[in-house]
Write a structure and sequence with these properties.
The chain has 342 residues and is mainly α. The protein has helices spanning 5-23, 25-28, 37-58, 61-81, 94-103, 111-132, 135-147, 154-171, 174-191, 196-208, 219-228, 232-261, 273-280, 285-295, 300-315, 325-341.
Amino acid sequence: TQVTTPDWLLIVASIAALAWPIVDFESFIYRAADPTPTDVVLGTALIALVLEATRRTSGAILPVTAAAFVVYAFYGPLLDLVGLGLIAHRGYDPARIVGTLYMTLEGIFGVPLDVAATYIVLFTIFGAVLNVSGTGKFLVDWSLAAVGRSRHGAGAGRAVTAAGLLLGAVSGSGVANTVTLGSMTWPVLKRAGYPSNMAGAILSAAGIGALICPPALGAAAFIIAELLKISYLQVVVMAAIPALLYFLSILLMIEADTRRLGTRALDLALPSAWELTRRQGFHFLALIGLPIMLALGMSAFRAVFYSILVAIALSFIDRRTALWPRRLAVALSAGGKSVIAV
């Protein structure tokens, strides 16, 4: 996409708005309750820029909702005049709104951004490294070999569900998980005779489950741990049972629907699950290494950092998946795009 003149103006405005707190940091952090005109102008610009960036990356719903709450903070007193006194309030002037959103840790520079800049960026890079190093393909192949062979047509659906669980455990991204599953298993589902709508439903349900699959989980898990002041390991443990129940429900629906739809068994040209484990079982270290480090008391930040190093080292076991600088750059680029999407 070509960068236009308005885009460059927005970039310059973003740099100015974000650089100002750094340039004037010593005084900036103490005047949130009484911002200067410069603070108000740059803070207003940053709020508008965040809303526009959200619109471009996520659509209009989220920024419109956020803008509605900003308007509500300003026009609260008017609600009393139109018969909505239950939700009316005394209102806040622009300086107070901008001061809270721009100059404190309760607004733009709050917990979500802190988590995104620390935990989420590492976990998304971890998932991208595993995908580029061949772990994603191995987990899908292993799932197909382990549960995809069946005397009736449920095998393909079972394999997609198992692959969704295994991939989700290391990706933490529902979108990335669904795309990876779809690119690798859609032909298998179609060969088994699943209607397009049924195949799409299985892929989307199994893929989006990555958001609740420990140990990676989704972005919300890190925010939960930060807000509740509990360890990330506690969040992982609490998420395990809901995740297993979620994927069990998918399996039960597949068992019921495949018999009704008359899908057929497939003869997959894959080695046995044992043979795949013997050849490339080192990929499973990506699944067990991270929770083991967390259980040993290591912080989530350090555990995922070491897991990335381990994944890079393991990739050199197979020459075809070795993460030499160019391939590693691809993984880091993919991780960066995922962080921007989050």
